[in-house]
């Protein structure tokens, strides 16, 4: 293995050189639907962040502050500096108080360092009510993994993409004796983001909230961000329907209270919403008939599997001949005796009392 090339000391670089290097690792734009997009391929350290914070706020962050939601793309971020973690987390931390987000153990110095959000940031934090999605891939590693995991544990971001590599926060290349061989060794580790004890992403990687191939992660994220603004309206219309139509009137206040207190942060699809609503509403009402469904029109169905048969018509007339009457009964009723001497009666259509009387 060749010896690694030594990068020039940051203190020897001019401001223009620092900005040029930073721009190679950052890309930002505002996508359709007023969704901010920030791609970060390398997490700068505290020294660079301190020098370039004004530049970043003026040229990147302020352009994203007015967006309705944010996508933080870490799919190509394979590492970074531990000291840069507080800067990324602080701008997305919605609280006004400092938060202990991780504790890092460093083997060479045998020391631990607590990572806290910054007491204040230059500019503004991203709005607490705005959704944030973090994109990951199988190449996302090190510091980028820690940031994704912290934001996920804070319930501040939805992680979309692939399980991350499960690497190390910091690596060191050590020469083996006087040879030209070097050994790459992890020298720092996370002791558990957000004080979770031994729980960490190292070795196993960060598991996304929504798993999808990395190349499809942005498309999936935009679909999620399209759904989420509609959720409050869905809840409001559901509350109105329960007030006006639900027959178990005494249970309506409890159901309305449950809907008002629902945590929708984990809802990323229509299926998620339906499952969450049905589980909660049926538990509160103790009524299995209370059911929420997604109904799509035939114009929006994607294929034959989405089509449903028309409901059978009610029988209103009785045929005159005996054979036709028997055929009618066979088409309406299915009767059999199942194993264990269990009777089975199925009917799919209702008939007038006069028809049943004749039959």
What's the arrangement of secondary structure elements?
Layout: H1 15-23, E1 26-31, E2 35-40, H2 46-65, E3 69-73, H3 85-92, E4 100-106, E5 111-116, E6 131-136, H4 143-153, E7 158-161, E8 170-175, E9 182-190, E10 210-211, H5 217-227, H6 231-245, H7 252-260, H8 270-285, H9 322-332, E11 333-338, E12 342-347, H10 353-358
Parallel strand pairs: 2-3, 3-6, 6-7, 7-10
Antiparallel strand pairs: 1-2, 4-5, 4-9, 8-9, 11-12
Helix pairs in contact: 3-4, 6-7, 7-8
Report the helical percentage.
25-40%
Beta strand count: 12
Largest sheet: 6 strands, mixed
Please report the distance between the alpha carbons of the first and last residues. Answer: 91 Å
**How many helices does DSSP assign?**
10
For this structure, what is the CATH class of the largest domain?
Alpha Beta
Tell me the fraction of residues in β-strands, as a range: 15-25%
In terms of per-residue confidence, which ranges show pLDDT below 50 for 5 or more consecutive residues? 1-8, 303-308
Cα-atom radius of gyration: 30 Å
- Quote the average pLDDT: 84
Query: In what order do the strands lie side by side in the largest sheet?
Result: 1-2-3-6-7-10
The number of distinct structural domains comes to 3
Organism: Phocoenoides dalli (Dall's porpoise)
InterPro entries: ClpP/crotonase-like_dom_sf (IPR029045), Tail-specific_protease (IPR005151)
Region (Disordered): 296-321
Protein name: Interphotoreceptor retinoid binding protein
